[in-house]
Amino acid sequence: MRAYVPGYEMLAPKALDEALGLLAASPETLTPIAGGTDLMVLFECGRLPEGRYLSLWQLDELRGIDITDEFVTLGALTTYRDVRDHPLLQAEFPMLCAAAAESGAIAIQNRGTLGGNIINASPAADSPPALLAYDAEIELVKKGGARWVPYRGFHLDYKVMDKEPGELLRRVRLPRRKDEASWTHFYRKVGTRRYQAISKVCFAGLAQLDSKGAIKVVRIGLASVAPTVLAAVETETALIGQTPSAKLAAQARAAMAKDVTPIDDIRSTAEYRRHVSINLAGAFVDTLSG
Amino acid sequence: MIGTNVPRKEGIPKVTGAALYIDDMVFDELLHGATIRSTVPHGTLVDVHFEGDLPWDEFVVVRASDVPGDNVVTMIESDQPFLADGRIMHAGEAVVLIAHADKDLVARARKHVRLEITPLEPVLSIADSVAKKATLYAKDNAFKRFLVEKGSTKDAFKADGLTIVEGEYTTGAQEQLYIEPNGMVAIASEKEGVTIWGSLQCPYYVHKALVPLFGLGADNVRIVQATTGGGFGGKEEFPSIIAGHAALLSWKAGGKPVKLIYDRAEDMWVTTKRHPSITRHKTAIDAKGKLVAMEVDFRIDGGAYATLSSVVLSRGTIHACGPYACPNQRITAAAMATNHPPHGAFRGFGAPQSIFGLERHLDRCAAAVGLTPDEFRRRNLLKPGQTTATHQVIEEKIDLPAMLDLALKRSDWAKKREAFEVENAKEGARIKRGIGLASFFHGSGFTGSGEVYLASVVGVRARQGGTIEILASSTEIGQGTNTIFAQIASEALNIPYEWIQIANPDTANVPDSGPTVASRTCMVVGKLVERGCRQLVDALRKGGFLAGDGYDAKQFARACDAYIFRHGKLEATTTYTPPPGVEWDEKRYRGSAYAAYGWAVYVAEVSVDMLTWEARVEHFTAVQDIGKVIHPVLAAGQVEGGVTQGIGFALYEDVVWRDGSMINNQMTNYIIPTAADVPPIDVVFHEVPFAHGPSGAKGVGELPMDGPAPAILNAIEHATGLSITSLPAAPEVIMAAALKNAAEATHG
C-alpha cells in the first residue's frame, strides 16, 4: 500500500442532517465517499489526495428503492447488487440491471453505489448510459435545500458537474413507461474482457415505435467516448420520427460519428471507440426494424 | 500411487490459511524497506536528494557505495548492478534503498527521494537496438546470437517448382501475474552472515547472487523458501535482486530484520516479463506439400541487462522450426539490448514466441499450396528416426499423426470447419466462427549440456518408523512439486504416500537439485528422487535388512529401524547422469537439445463479433504426450492453466509502454482472462512412457503455453479471413485488419 494513512481523516456521520452540516462547514475540503470502490483503489496506489473525507456509508436515509405509479426512486447508496436483483427494475429498466450485473466483481457490486457512480463522474462509468436512456432525474440536497434536476445535462465536462460544493446526491428517479411491449432496449457494454472490465464503449439505447412503425421516442446514452458520459443528441435527432430501415441505420451511423469525441488511452484507441459506437448505432436501428 | 489423484501435500495448510507466505511472517524489531527507482529509461545519475519534512536521520539508507562486496547480480553475465551507480539503464532501476520501522512513514518517504538524472537517448525497440540508436551492450547491442543449420536452405531455394512463403510475426511482453507479489525478509550482519526468507523458485540462484554481494563464504549465506504463491518463471531470477536489497538494508541496520514486499504496481513495473519478439520466416514447399526449406530469423528484446536472455533465446531458437521434418533448415537468432527493464523467464521461455510465428506461418503455407492446415501438417510432422533442426534423431516412440487425428476427432474439426464456412458466408453474419490448430513440442529440462553442468543432487533420508524425507531445492510454487515427489517416492519404496515428507527448501539443509524451471522438476529431479529411493532399498537389501523379493510397509519400517540402529542413519544421495546417447555440440548448436520432449496438438474454436471485433475462445481441445501422467488432476490443471495463460497471451495481455515504463501496471488495466473468458477445455493425455523419466514421466509445465496463441489466431483467420500476425489480437488489432481489408476490396 502506497498511502500514508495518518494523512487521512474520515468523518462518518450517522444522519443525513449531520452530514450536510459537516459539508456546509467545509464544502471545499471535505470529500464525500460512498462505497469507495474507486477512491480506495486510488488510496491503495498512493494517488488519493491526503485530507478529509466524509463517509456516507452509514446514512440509511440514502438507501432504499421506492415505487409509485409514476417513478421508481432509488436512494443514492443503492448498490449494484440491489439494482441487479430488483424484479421491477429487471422488468422495466433491464439496461440498468445489465449495467449493474456487468460492473466489477460480486464484491464490487455489493459495495459500489449508483450515487457514487454518478458523482465520481468517470466518463467510463457503466450505469450512466442506462440512466440517460431512461431519462433519469437526480435530487441534490444541501443544508437547507434540495432540488431535482434532469440527469441529462448534469455532467458539464471531465469531472465537472452542475453541482454546488456542499450538495450531496440524495436520490435518483426513473419515470415509468406504459405499453412495455412497444419499447426496445438495446444495451451493449464493450469491455476489455467479458466481466470485471472497464468499458471501452458502453451503449444504451431506448426507443418506442408508434402504431405506424415510426420512432416516437428515442434516447441513447454512451460511456467512454467523450470527456463525460454522453447523450447522443445528433443520433437521436436523426432518428426521431423516422421509420427504421437500412437507410436509417446508415444515417444513424453518420450521426453517431458526429456525437462521439473519443480519445486514445490505456485501454483502447479513439479509432476503435469511434467505429464501435458507429456500429452499435447501426445495430440499434437494425434491431428496431426487426 | 503413480497415476492417482492423491491429496496435495500442502493442501490443508493452504486452504486453512495456516501456510505462511512471506508477508505473514513475523519478526521482532522489523524494519520495512522500500526501493527508490529511476523513472527515466536511460541516463546518468547526478545526485540524490532527500526532501520533505521527514526524519531522514531515522531512516536506514543504502546506496551503491554501501555495498560490502561486488555490486553485481551474479547470473550468466555480470553486467547488472544491485544498485545503479552512475549509469541508469532502465526505468524502474533501483538506485537507493530506504527502511524504517514505521511502514506508513516509509510509504510517505519513498515519494520524497528525488533522483537527479541527466537523460540519455533511450533504445526502446528491437529495431532501434539493431540500428544502434545508442550502444548499450558490446559493439552491436546483441547479448547473444545463435545459428542453427541443417542442409543448405540457400541451395534448396534455387530448385524449380517450389512455393515460397514469407512472413513476419511479432509478440509483445507478457506479465506472469503470479497471485502473490514478490517479497523477501533478510537478516544480515558481518557477525551472523546473511539469512533470507522469501517468495522464490530457485533458492540456489539467490544463494549464488548473494555470496559475492557480501563477499562472504558460501556457508554464511542461507536462503529459505517461504510458501510461494505462484511463479511462472517470474520468481526465477528477479528474487535475487530483492533478496540482495533486503539484505543490504539489514546489513546497514546492524542486523535488524528488513522486510521488502512489492505491491502489485511495483511488481508489474519493474520485475521481468516475457521477451517481446519478432520472427521472420521464409519457407519453400514442393508440389507434394512437403517442407523443403525453412529459414527463420528470431529476435527478442532482452531489456537493459543480459540476465537470462541468452538462454531464453536458445530455447526459442531450438523450437523455431517445430516438430516438422525438413531437410534444409537455418535459424538465425539474436537477443538485443534495449532500455526496457530486463525481460526474463516466463513459462515457455522463448518457445511460445517462436512457435507462435511458426504455427501462424504454417497455416499461410498450407493455404499457399492449397492444403487444409491439418493435411499440410500431417504431411510434414516428425516421425521417429527423423531429425529436428539441431540434427537430433527422434528416438521417442511418438506418433504425431495419430495425435493429430485424435485432436481433430475430439474437436469435431472437419464438420465444424465446414459448418462455420457455410454460416460465415451468409449475408450480414454478425458472429463469425472459426477453428484453428497448432502442433508443437517442448523440450523437458535444461537445454543441451545444461543438465550435465547443473549436476543436480537429491537426498533421501529414512527416519525411525520408515518415514522418508526428500531433500531437494525444487520448490513448491503451486504446481505440485511436493505431491508428485511424494508419489514418486511412495511408488519407488512401496510405502504409503503419507509416509513421505518433503523438506522445505533451505540451502542450509537441502542439496542443490537445480532451479525449479524448464519443465525439469518432474522428469529430471523426479527421476533423482526415484533413483535415491531405489538406492535406499538396495542398501537395506545389501545389508540384509530386507529379505526376499517383496516387502510390505511394515517390513520396510522395521528394516529402516534396524538399519538406523546399526548404522546411525539411512540416507541416499543421487546425482544427475544424462540418459545414454544424449550429446550436444555447443559450438555448432547441434545434437540432442533435450533428452525428451512433450508433444501436442491443440485446437481452438473462436467466435468474432463483427460489430466490435471481439474474439472469444468458445472451445479448446488440448491433446498432449507428456509421457506417463503422475497425478491426473495436477497435470490437467497445468494444461488448463497453461491454455488460459495462452488465451491471455493471444487475445488480452498487452503491456502498454511509455518512455520505457509499463503504464498499465495494475490488474484493472492489464487484462488477463477471467473464468468467463475461458471456454471448456478438453484435456487429453496421449501417454507414451519415456524410458528415462520417473515411471515414464516427462515435463508438463511449459508445453501448454506454446500452442494456444497460434491455434487461436489461426481460428480467427478461418472465421474472418483476416490474417493477424501480432500478439495480442486485441479487438483494435482485428479492427485495423478488417478496415484495411475492406479498403483494399473497395480500391480493387
In short:
The complex is a heterodimer of chains A (290) and B (748). Chain A has 290 residues and is of the alpha+beta class.
Structure description:
The complex is a heterodimer of chains A (290) and B (748). Chain A is built from eleven helices and 14 strands. Chain A has helices at residues 16-25, 39-44, 80-85, 87-92, 94-101, 106-111, 114-119, 127-133, 233-239, 246-259, 270-288, and strands at 8-11, 30-33, 51-55, 65-67, 71-75, 137-142, 145-150, 155-157, 160-161, 168-175, 183-191, 199-209, 215-223, 230-231. A five-stranded antiparallel β-sheet of chain A has the order 4-5-10-6-7. In chain A, helix 9 (233-239) runs antiparallel to helix 10 and helix 10 runs antiparallel to helix 11 (270-288). The longest helix of chain A has 19 residues, at 270-288. In chain A, 47% of the residues are buried. Chain B is an alpha+beta fold and 748 residues long. Chain B has three domains: 26-120 and 181-269, Aldehyde Oxidoreductase, domain 3, CATH 3.90.1170.50; 277-447 and 588-746, Aldehyde oxidase/xanthine dehydrogenase, molybdopterin binding domain (Aldehyde Oxidoreductase, domain 4, 2-Layer Sandwich); 456-575, 2-Layer Sandwich (Aldehyde Oxidoreductase, domain 4). In chain B, the strands form seven sheets. A seven-stranded mixed β-sheet of chain B has the order 3-5-1-12-9-10-11. Chain B has a five-stranded mixed β-sheet with strand order 7-15-14-13-8. Chain B has a four-stranded mixed β-sheet with strand order 16-23-24-27, sandwiched between helices. In chain B, helix 8 (309-318) runs parallel beside helix 9 and helix 9 packs parallel to helix 19. Chain B is globular and about 80 Å long. Chain B starts with 10 loop residues before the first helix and ends with a helix. The chains are: A alpha+beta (290), B alpha+beta (748). At the A-B interface, helix 11 of A face helix 2 and helix 20 of B.
